[in-house]
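Hi support team,

I've been running sequence recovery on a batch of backbones for a student project. Most finish fine, but this one hangs at about 90% for roughly twenty minutes before it completes. I'm not sure whether the input is malformed or the queue is just slow. I've pasted the structure tokens below so you can try to reproduce it. Let me know if you need the job ID as well.

Thanks,
M.K.
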């Protein structure tokens, strides 16, 4: 094989990836036995790094929690002059490295790896962590021809299996059986056999899974299986429940010293803050008071960039330091809102980069963030005081991840759908000069998520550096004069007066100019023939461009792009283009609207077509002819 037929761009392909999970009992104590076998074909020079593999494992001083890696065997196969040459892995190519206080990894460097090599690795892990089964990923960042897992689980353990991904199983089997696990005998001296479940799952011809701009985290899309222990029923100790309901989780957090109790202990300081807010309030209107509390907290306590579930120290200390995690800042806001007379509670969520939460299984480690919640006119109202740029009842994009869990006496799921769009309006006003120049200005105003994200970008860079970055980006601008200022409604705005060089082409007595200049869509983000995953924009998008060009007096308009107004079904999006010429002035409007934040894989083709047709239209040119 020189290339992989199903993906000619692949640098390598997993030919075979298999795992076998089973339980053994040593002195009636359960131990998990893992056996792994993987085979990879290297196709390109860029894939040579696949010749180094790692095996992570748990390492602690206590043998009761220490995993053992055994039976590492590896080979490199090369085809040379029609003969297969086999180079075996030696102990000199296996290294043990510490990755954290409790984890280590075996680093394996295969010998004689080159383009065309096949590398083969097998090993086993003996784990005393019987209550934990490793999750299995069928899909990887390179194509996988075959991936499978077998797991034989005694009936003493009740694991919930959760499937992720968008690819079908080639094999999906669950069989029942009986065997001797814990040694026991009947009064007649016969060994007692207990039931077990034998799982066998496999997938084939899996495409490479690579992150793109329209995903949350790649793990939300990876075809995989998670094992979560719900309960155990041992013959000697009886039943023990491990799974936690969301009701249990809520009760635990409300009584947790670093969560619910922390809010209440901050009450004295929160009361002083509330009194200060009320004393300065110009209006006693509820929304005005909520807004004042929101602005006070987010302008007083800086986010340190960390996301955690529980607080790291007392909220009074966080407030004094004026810096904390997202949860710490928002728990302070919850406490202040409560002292102001509102019923405020935290909402647990998982950021987009952290992955989606499971509604069926309550797992605390699936969450990594908290925001503040109140009810306004019977509707959920969410506030994130760790972000200084989003407006009230708008969560930053990192938080727009389907749903969150309200931690209160009346807990429930709360929608994290975006309350607004990413919007921008750009105005281009230029005179067309005869020396391939455009002279004039442009103004770009950002709204909603467009404004908050642009403000964050400007603040991070600093205004001067941000403008210098723009100047470096637009090299065709001659002596640009950039200015940054807010609109009347407080939204971000960029203005620039400039001359644009080489703005159009001349052929004989004609001028050819692309009317949207640098604002034309340069690349279709949806180039795949099909997509199995949803397209997740995070929020809706609206981009409007309005241009006005004054043509030279000695030229006339010969042709203009034609009108276009195309819609996606059910008003999910549209693209509008209209243009006219009158009295020596060309005016046009181009508007892209993506009304939905998430498109299913079934809607992918129509979304791709919208962008394809939009780009074709934006590529059409204005043609001017000399009189």
């Amino acid at each position: 094989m020189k290339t992989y037929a199903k993906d000619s761009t692949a640098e390598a392909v997993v030919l075979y990836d298999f795992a076998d999970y089973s339980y053994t009992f040593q002195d009636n104590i359960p131990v998990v036995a893992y056996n792994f076998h993987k085979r990879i074909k290297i196709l390109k020079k860029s894939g040579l790094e696949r010749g180094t593999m790692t095996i992570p494992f748990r390492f602690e001083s206590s043998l009761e929690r220490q995993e053992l890696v055994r039976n590492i065997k590896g080979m490199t196969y090369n085809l040379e002059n029609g003969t297969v040459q086999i180079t075996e892995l030696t102990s000199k190519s296996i290294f043990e490295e510490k990755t954290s206080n409790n984890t280590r990894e075996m680093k394996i460097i295969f010998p004689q790896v080159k383009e065309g090599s096949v590398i083969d690795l097998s090993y086993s892990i003996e784990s005393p962590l019987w209550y934990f089964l490793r999750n299995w990923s069928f899909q990887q960042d390179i194509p996988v021809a075959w991936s499978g897992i077998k797991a034989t689980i005694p009936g003493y353990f009740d694991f919930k299996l959760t499937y992720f991904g968008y690819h079908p199983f080639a094999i999906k089997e669950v069989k029942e059986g009986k065997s001797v696990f814990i040694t026991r005998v009947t009064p007649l001296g016969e060994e007692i056999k207990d039931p077990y479940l034998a799982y066998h799952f496999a997938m084939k011809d899996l495409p490479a899974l690579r992150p793109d701009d329209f995903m949350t985290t790649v793990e939300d899309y990876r075809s995989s299986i998670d094992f979560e222990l719900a309960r155990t029923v041992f013959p000697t100790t009886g039943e023990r429940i491990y799974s936690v309901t969301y009701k249990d989780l809520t009760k635990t957090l409300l009584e947790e010293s670093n969560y619910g109790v922390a809010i209440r202990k901050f009450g004295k300081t929160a009361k002083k803050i509330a009194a200060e807010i009320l004393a300065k309030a110009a209006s006693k209107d509820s929304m005005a008071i909520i807004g004042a509390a929101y602005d006070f907290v987010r302008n007083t306590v800086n986010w340190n960039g960390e996301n955690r579930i529980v607080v790291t120290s007392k909220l009074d200390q966080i407030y004094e330091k004026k810096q904390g995690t997202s949860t710490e800042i928002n728990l302070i806001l919850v406490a202040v809102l409560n002292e102001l007379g509102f019923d405020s509670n935290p909402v647990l969520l998982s950021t987009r980069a952290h992955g989606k939460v499971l509604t069926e299984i309550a797992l605390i480690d699936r969450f990594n963030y908290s925001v503040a919640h109140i009810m306004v006119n019977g509707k959920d109202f969410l506030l994130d005081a760790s972000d200084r740029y989003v407006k009230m009842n708008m969560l930053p994009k990192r938080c727009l991840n389907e749903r969150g869990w309200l931690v209160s006496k009346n807990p429930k799921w709360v929608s994290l759908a975006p309350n607004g769009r990413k919007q921008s309006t750009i105005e281009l006003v230029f005179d067309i000069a005869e020396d391939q120049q455009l002279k004039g200005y442009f103004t770009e105003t950002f709204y909603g998520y467009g404004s908050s994200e642009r403000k964050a970008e400007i603040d991070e860079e600093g205004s001067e550096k941000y403008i210098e970055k723009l100047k470096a980006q637009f090299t065709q601008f001659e002596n640009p004069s950039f200015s940054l200022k807010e609109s009347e409604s407080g939204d971000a705005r960029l203005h620039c007066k400039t001359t644009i060089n080489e703005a159009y082409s001349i052929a004989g007595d004609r001028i050819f100019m692309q009317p949207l200049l640098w604002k034309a869509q340069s690349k279709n983000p949806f180039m795949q023939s099909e997509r199995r995953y949803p397209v997740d924009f995070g929020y809706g998008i609206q981009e409007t461009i309005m241009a006005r060009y004054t043509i030279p007096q000695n030229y006339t308009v010969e042709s203009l792009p034609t009108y276009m107004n195309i819609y996606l079904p059910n008003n999910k999006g549209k693209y509008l283009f209209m243009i006219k010429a009158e009295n020596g002035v060309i005016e046009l409007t181009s508007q892209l609207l993506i009304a939905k934040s998430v498109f299913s894989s079934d809607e992918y083709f129509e979304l791709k077509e919208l962008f394809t047709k939009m780009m074709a239209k934006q590529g059409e040119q204005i043609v001017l002819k000399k009189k």
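--
Follow-up from support: It reproduced on our side and the slowdown came from queue contention, not your input. The radius of gyration is 31 Å. No action needed from you.
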